[in-house]
Amino acid sequence: MAKLSKKERDALGASIQQENEMLKRVVKVARNASIALAISLLLVFWGFTGMKDAFLPDISDGVRNVVKWIALITAVLSFIMLVFALVARHNGRKHVLKNIDRYQGKA
């Protein structure tokens, strides 16, 4: 492969830096999606099992029903977001590593 000019190396270095920052944002999205998934799964479990809670003993069945369905929808959306974020992280890391090799002249 041909050597990169100084201008191309600088552009590639800036691109690598920008992609690395985007990967950090994707990791934050994945972390937030996993937290939202955990909380919504706990609410789904609470709603569908009908367990009595010491903190909220007087919750009506109507409110419990609304909460469990909203939590179920949130859990599904959080799971989809988590999967997308993990796939984006995986593919992004591969691309950054490929660009680093290209920057170093290995590929």
Number of helices: 2
The best one-word shape is rod-shaped
The percent of residues in helical segments reads over 70%
Biggest sheet, in brief?
Answer: none
Mean pLDDT: 92
Low-pLDDT segments, ≥5 res: none
- The overall number of domains is 1
Strand content: under 5%
DSSP strand tally: 0
What is the radius of gyration computed over CA atoms, rounded to a whole number of angstroms?
Answer: 23 Å
Order of helices and strands: HH
Distance between the termini: 7 Å
- Secondary structure class reads mainly alpha
Structure description:
Keywords: Membrane, Transmembrane, Transmembrane helix. This protein is mainly alpha-helical. The protein has one domain. It contains 2 helices and no strands. The chain has helices spanning 6-49, 61-104. The longest helix is centred in the N-terminal third of the chain and has 44 residues, at 6-49. The chain is rod-shaped, with a radius of gyration of 23 Å. The mean pLDDT is 92.
Question: What would you say about this model in short?
Answer:
The protein is mostly helical and 107 residues long. The protein is 82% helix and 0% strand. The chain is rod-shaped and about 70 Å long.
Write the layout of secondary structure elements.
Elements: H1 6-49, H2 61-104
Helix pairs in contact: 1-2
Keywords for this entry:
107 residues, mainly alpha, 2 helices, 82% helix, transmembrane, transmembrane helix, membrane
